[in-house]
Design brief:
This protein is an all-beta fold. The chain folds into 2 domains: about 180 residues, Jelly Rolls (Sandwich), CATH 2.60.120; about 260 residues, no CATH class. Helices cover about 0% and strands about 55% of the residues. Strand 13 and strand 14 form a beta hairpin. The longest helix is centred in the first third of the chain and has 4 residues. The termini are far apart.
């Protein structure tokens, strides 16, 4: 491989992508399944045979997807997602995945024309050489998890999260989060560009077939801007040059001084589904306003959203904004009070499985070192709506260590919180703090932010979204 002639060291290089949890099965008959298709989308076999494909259709290794005037989104068996723009031809050259990363996995693709946006899965995660997207102009390899490509006679490649490498006969260029490369032809070296490769998202599916990922703009359902949202967020807060950690829940609440009037909250999202601004009342009549600076990534399943800002700002009561850093959040319309009442959920116990998460960040205030996790977290949670008890577990890899907490706590309306001890590494007296809320009808989703204190890496922050997988009468936490 030619020598790399540029490598930009910046905070963006430290930022982790958001990730998805997908069920892994054995080798399926197809390499991928169509999650969304509109227009006359076809699959072309190597022998030239053509078939029309729609949602649910399987795509095999060796086939080419031709979107024509339509568009499509496919999901591979390793959890990868690819969104294809109109007038695109995308060929699956060689795809192999047996359900585990044992060295036999492979994902080699060709973009013959058009535009694509991809969220990579497990293939290429342990061995980068096992994944590449080829055009006649350049080859794109992964060092992160998400990128977009527009290809005509030349190509534009934009890295959404992590980093990617773009190579041709003239050299290689590493792209960090938010950076774009332009490649004029196969013999001209890639250069930096300010013209991003943008793939407009298809319309959201009202009943999404997936609930996790790491970028809403790849075609995932997005949340509409407007009032009525709840937000849980955790990160670093800078005031007068001093850094402190925070976690909080904000959202609609009833103010008894105004005859039970529900105070409005508003969340604004960009076209990719990333949260850009959230405002709500803070205490009495002061307005709390938080705004994104640089968005590290975002995802929504249409009910709840989650993401991370690498930077942002916060102001309240009209005071000048203070800086935020590495803020993890979950946002959604909270479960209605009627659903949370004793007549509905009051005698029920809900169980939840992890649907999506941000890669965690850690900051050691003693050394000033920020560390970003690169491995998926795991966890689950339960809620006894009758006794207002909530509990769960989280396992968070950071560096070579995995930090684990079993936490328990309280419910108040649709909000919940808790704490627990943390084990892992050289932890002694490490603890966790949990803040979150239930979203959607009958508490269909739960979102939380967490912070682990006292670890070898300092304070670890992150966000997680959960999907309800069970709801039944039971004795819950007291069993």
């Amino acid at each position: 491989m030619p020598n790399e002639f540029k490598m930009k060291h910046s905070s963006a290089a430290l930022m982790a992508a958001l990730a998805a949890v997908f069920p892994l099965t054995g080798q399926a008959a197809g390499a991928a399944r169509v999650d969304f298709a509109s227009g006359d989308v076809k699959a072309l076999a190597p022998d030239g045979r053509s078939r029309t494909i729609d949602k649910g259709a399987e795509i095999a290794s060796g086939e080419t997807i031709d979107t024509g005037n339509g568009r499509a989104q496919v999901r591979f068996t390793d959890g990868a997602q690819v969104s294809l723009a109109p007038q695109t031809q995308f060929r699956i050259d060689d795809y192999r995945f047996s359900g585990k990363t044992d060295g036999s996995e492979k994902g080699f693709f060709s973009l013959l024309r058009g535009g694509m946006r991809t969220i990579t899965g497990l293939v290429g995660r342990s061995n980068r050489e096992n994944y590449k997207v080829t055009t006649t102009v350049a080859t794109i390899g992964i060092r992160g998890t998400e990128f977009s490509v527009i290809y005509g006679n030349s190509i534009n490649v934009t890295t959404g999260e992590g980093s990617n490498i773009v190579c041709n006969a003239a050299g290689c260029l590493i792209l960090n989060s938010g950076e774009t490369a332009y490649v004029a032809d196969a013999n001209t070296q890639p250069v930096m560009s300010d013209k991003m490769a943008e793939i407009p998202p298809p319309p959201p599916d009202p009943l999404p077939t997936f609930i996790a990922g790491n970028s809403a703009s790849g075609g995932f359902p997005v949340l509409p801007s407007g009032p009525g949202y709840s937000l849980a967020m955790a990160g670093q807060f800078y005031d007068s040059g001093e850094s402190s950690f925070f976690s909080a829940i904000r959202g609609p609440y009833s103010d008894s001084r105004h005859d039970g009037q529900v105070k409005a909250t508003t969340a604004n999202f960009d076209s990719s589904g990333a949260l850009t601004h959230f405002s709500t009342m803070d205490g009495g009549e002061g307005v709390l306003s938080v705004a994104a600076g640089v968005t590290a990534g975002a995802l929504s399943d249409g009910i709840i959203g989650w993401g991370r800002w690498s930077s942002g700002s916060i102001s309240d009561w009209g005071n000048p904004p203070s800086a935020l850093q590495d803020v993890h959040y979950v946002v959604g319309i909270p479960t209605p009070a009627a659903d949370m009442s004793a007549l509905q959920l009051g005698s029920m116990v809900g169980t939840y499985t992890l649907a999506g998460f941000t890669f965690p960040t850690a900051y050691n205030s003693s050394t000033g070192v920020t560390t970003v996790g690169t491995q998926p977290i795991s966890g689950s949670m339960s809620a006894d709506f009758g006794t207002a008890a909530v509990w769960g577990n989280l396992n968070v890899p950071m560096g070579t260590n995995t930090y684990s907490t079993s936490w328990g706590g309280w419910m108040s309306g649709s909000n919940f919180g808790g704490s627990g001890s943390v084990s892992g590494g050289s932890c002694c007296g490490c603890g966790s703090s949990i803040q979150g809320f239930f979203a959607g009808p009958m508490a269909a989703r739960a979102g939380l932010v967490y912070q682990f204190y006292g670890t070898d890496f300092g304070t670890i922050s992150g966000a997680a979204a959960f999907k309800q997988t069970g709801l039944a009468a039971g004795c819950g936490y007291s069993c």
